[in-house]
Amino acid sequence: MTLLAKPAYDAVVFDCDGVLVDSERLAVEVTHRIVADLGWETDVESLGRLLIGCSSEFFLATLEEHLGRKLEPGWDAPYAGWREDAFAGRLEVIPGIVAALDGIDLPWAVASNSRTARIRSSLATVGLLDRFEGRICSAEDEANGKPAPDVYLSAARLLGVAPGRCIAVDDSPTGVLAAQRAGMFVLAFADQFTAKDFPSGDRVRVFTDMRELPRLVAELRRPSAR
């Protein structure tokens, strides 16, 4: 008698920025204007590779290093409106993500380095908050942000699924490494900033079109006969 093994994966954990909402492009554009105003001359692509997936603490330390001076607390307050204006007027979903979510019949959660308020605001702006309500994990609630696995492990606990039975979807090398360290299989979504910089491994698969996500998840879940 041939028995079918149970599906290999039981849940999906999504990063937010650059996976659900197309915020990273806007964030890089605004941050490029801010650092130029402060006196750091760099190009958008180099800044993007630095920013995507990094913590605010890492960014501040890098910014101060390039400026050659310490920044006072509240240094970024004058720039708050720049980001708010950009996000309010131009923030959109990642192309293909709505159909992808419709095509995945698994429980899911968000695991992001962003603050909870920002995650919720971004998801609400693009109409996705209802899909993730009660299943949002932020690194601000963890001892360590990505690339530490903490926020991904919290998402797995929230879903009641072992980390090794979760599929993570992330678009930054930092996030991919965090999910790897959590023991998850990672679908790495490549964009203009991260396409060539993902950590390698037999539990990482790179893809470039969000419309392919349901098929990739289904393939990973397909049980093998035994």
UniProtKB/TrEMBL annotation:
Pfam families: Hydrolase. One of its GO terms (molecular function) is sugar-phosphatase activity. InterPro entries: HAD-like_sf (IPR036412), HAD-like_SPP (IPR051806), HAD-SF_hydro_IA (IPR006439), HAD_sf (IPR023214), PGP-like_dom2 (IPR023198). PANTHER family: FRUCTOSE-1-PHOSPHATE PHOSPHATASE, GLYCEROL-1-PHOSPHATE PHOSPHOHYDROLASE 1-RELATED. This is HAD superfamily hydrolase (TIGR01509 family).
